[in-house]
Every structure is written in C-alpha cells, then in structure tokens.
C-alpha cells in the first residue's frame, strides 16, 4: 500500500487539512444533462465534494456512472451544443461554471491540469513532444521559446523521461505508452496547477507502469501540494493513493468518506457489492469449494431513464426499506458504522435507506470482503 | 491501352485520304505510317521510340506528337491549377464551417451546394455560365485561350469561367472530404488535451484540428489535380479551350493513333508523378510515416 508520508491519510491528520486551509476545489450540486437522440440524459445528478490542497480524492464507479463527464464539465470540456452544466464549482475562489470563456482558458493549465485515460490518443501525433509542451507553457505567460523549451525539458526530467532534452524532438509514436503518459502528465503539470485531475490515468497502462505513474503523481503532489481528483474503477489504486473516496453510481454520489471508512466499513449496498466483487486471494475455500467471483448483478441504469427512487434499487440485493423504490435517499452522515475507530475528522456519508451493516444482506459484512484492500488492519 | 486504341473501329488511312482515293495512295500511306505491320511489332516499335522521347508523327497534321502536346500543355496546366485553386477556395472554408457546426443551417446549405456541384453535369454548368455572362450580360468572352504572356487581362477573363466550372466540381468533392476529416480531427482526444492545457481556441483549431485534417486533404487534392491535368474534355470543348483533353478527343475522332497514344501515355505519367508527389508530401507532413 503506497501510503504517502506527510500527506493526510486515515483518521487524525485528515481534519488538519480541511480545517486549516481553504479547499482548492469546491463542487456543489453539479448537474450535467446531455442532449441525446434518445432524449435528455441526466449523466451527473447533484454532485458535491471538496478537494483540499495536497489531498487526493478518488472518484470510483462503473463505466457510465458519470465520473469522467463530471470532471470534463468542470473545465468546460464538454461540447456546449449537447451538454448543459449547472451547479457551482469554485476553484480557488472562482466559479468555473459561470466563468467567461477567456478566463476559463486561462484557468485551464495553471488552475487545473488534466491527465486523460489513453496516452495513445491524447497527444497530437503530428507535433513533437516539445512543441506540445512549449505551446502549453507559452499560452500562460510571456515566455520566450528557448525558456519554454528548457522548462519543458526540466518537466520531462521531473516525470522521469530518460534523455529529456532529446525527447523534446521526438514524436509521440516514438514513445511507449508509459512514456507518453509521463508526457501527458508533464503537460498537465507544466503550469503548476493547483488541482490535478487524473481521468483513469493509469487504466490503459500495465501494472508496473501503473505503479510508477502513481508514485510519480504522489511525489509531485507531496512536493507541490497539489490537490488531486483521481478517477478510476480500480479499487486497488484507490486504497493505495486516496485520502478520500467518492463512490458514484447513476450520476450520483452514493457514498463518500475517508478511504478507511469507505473501503473498510462500506455503508451503501453498491459499495459493498463493488468491494465484494474484488477477487480475494486470502478468502479460504469452504469445504474444498473455492467461492465464485462475486458480481453486482444487472447493469447500471441508462441516464435517459433513471429510476424514481434509489438509483441502485433495481440491482440492490438488500431493498430493506419501503422507501427504496419511490423515494430518493439523501446523502447523509451515517451513524453507528464507524464505532470501531471512533469518529474520523471527515464525515462518512451514504445515500441509502439501508445503512445497517447486517449479515443477512447476502453481501460480505464490512471488512471480510476487503482484506485485499484494507492493508492497515 | 495500345490494343484498345487500335481496336477502335475505323481506318485512320481512309479518314486521312478523304472520300476519293486510289488503292496505290492508300497502300503508300499505310506503309508510311507503319500500319501494314503486325500490331505487336507496331507496339514494340512505338514503345521503344517513346522511351527515347519520340512519340511519332500525327497522321492528321504531320507534326510530331511531342510538339502538339507541348503546344497544348500550357493551356491545360493553366486551367488545372486555376481550377484546383478555385476548388480549395471553396472546399476548405465550406467544409470547415460545416464540420464546426454539424447539422446546422450552414452545414445543410453546404451539403446542398456540394451535392449540386457533384451531380450537375459540368457541360451544363458551362453552357449556363456562357449564356449568362457571355450572352446576356456580355461581361466575359465565351471561350478561347490567350497565353498570359500575350495579354494577362484577356488570359484571366477567358480562364475565369472554365476554371469556375471545373473548380466547382472538384471543390464539391473536396468539400465532403474536408468536412469529414475536420469532424474527425475535432473529435479526437488530443484536441481535448490541447483545450485542457489552456490553448487559445484559434491555436487549438489551427494546430490540432486543421493540421491533422490536412492529411486526407492532400490525398484527395492530388487525385483531383491529376484528373484536371489529364484534361477535362467536356469543359474544354464547351469553352473551346485548346487543352490536352481536346487534343485527345480530336485524335480519337481522326483515329490519329500516335497522338492518342502520346496523350494517354502523358496522362498515365501525370497520375504517377502526382501520386509520387502526394506520397512525398505525406512524409513531410506526417511524422509517423518518416523512418
């Protein structure tokens, strides 16, 4: 588990961060509606969270849960013709969603840098690596070409590219996937952003490269105090890097809290399902029978046709409350689950009517299904 | 190709001699033109001479084929390059604008215009232009060709209409390509990366959209240019433009084998050369092809 030294993780230091300094990013009731041929699709439905300086917030969820769209919406990277974004997203005191286009352009880069999922396609194939770095640096300041080039070389060195000077004149196709992703990270960091958004930044990479990239971002974050939003569906990565976790489902946040709270003591049936679906090498065979890999049955709801009550209701194995089907559960702080460790500095919230950790849910009770993740125990 | 030319029914000797001639003069001319020899021999003789730059002598005029082609070449080059210029001037803005606003009014209008350009016969468009601008309005001469060295004004006024007709046709084809390649470039991930690093919109568009959309544009422009250089027969006839297309057509009518063969050989060469140039351009603009 790559727990980082000096950065907040777990119970006590977390409160120091949020209490001490203003958050880098404050998202409030973010909603995204897309115009599709099949009618309006509510892809993000009222998302609220904050990212503190030096803090890593992991956003997890299945494909189509609205993770990527929610961050693209922050930086105005969704096509305006099809996307309607409402809510508030305050980055360093300024609301991104009501910003003038020119101001938003200035914020992209120094305010927030973004690393995308597929390093094979996120660089322009016909421009050199150096050019793509230099143009980003020069877009945000009166820097001479030579100065920008030497800064670009420094950045490439910082992200661990061998022969950074030579790499400036290489084209993306001459680099491997891991190297390209380092270039993308260098571009995202080139204007020292206050916030770094990594949208499935390691999903397309193999595991060893993935670990290197995660280390790289953690080190850079520790050096610069950058706030990080880490979008992933890999819970192993979450356990390794996140301070806080936000579980998304059907465009909503269904559970959030510290990484320990959410991964060790999940409250929402969906989170428990996700954790239960992890292969667990430590789980013993019962009477010589190796248990099947658990899954969350069914598919996520289509954003054009969200259920009326709890978004997870159609797939939920619990359905422990009469309100499940008709009434949307609010995201509230849950009681009683955190009894093992006492109250942490950050609230552990979940949007469900069925918070009691019971063993009759058919899902593994908290802890047992997540031993592969819960390295602190 | 050689066989095809000779398979065309009709006897060039008969056509050259007119209606009344004696068997002696027929045989004499036939022998002089080498048409009495077996086809295979004729072919190898012609091909061998062609390699040395000798394309033979026209049956009709008695001039060498090379001199006839050289005489027509400036007119064809002028029209081809003027047309491709018109085509690009139409296609790049129209295609780009419709890609930027897909399914908008502008896009639909652009689609209609380019469909019109593709489907309307060029000779009809030429005749309409002549009727309007040369006939009714009397602004432009109806046809002919004046070398630019003689009278630039007359050169331009005579070039305008034929270049417009062929340019609209080629431009319509190219517009569709520009639209789809700009659309594709717009949707690619690296454009989002460029936006995310805070580049000004214009810079994103020039260097991350247009620059990448250039690749397919070069190919299709090359194909269109090759087509224009091999003579746009119908438009040349309509505007009495003394180009290679007209030469080739006259050669067919007169069964003037040497001229026709020479013209066809030249067209084939033009295609080869243009393809080569396109490939070379590709290596210049797409680093992925360089080694």
From TrEMBL, chain A:
As for subcellular location, the record says: Cell membrane
* UniProt GO molecular function: ATP binding; ATP hydrolysis activity
Its cellular-component GO annotations read: plasma membrane
GO biological process assignments: peptide transport
Compositional bias segments (type: Polar residues): 355-371
Q: Name one Pfam family in it.
A: oligo_HPY
Q: What keywords does the record list, in alphabetical order? A: ATP-binding, Cell membrane, Membrane, Nucleotide-binding, Transport
- Record domain ABC transporter: where: 25-275
Q: Where is this region: Disordered?
A: 1-20, 355-377
Please report the record's description of how this protein sits within the membrane: Peripheral membrane protein
Q: Which family does it belong to?
A: Belongs to the ABC transporter superfamily.
Q: Can you say what this protein is called?
A: ABC transporter ATP-binding protein
Instruction: Say which species the protein is native to.
Output: Blastococcus saxobsidens
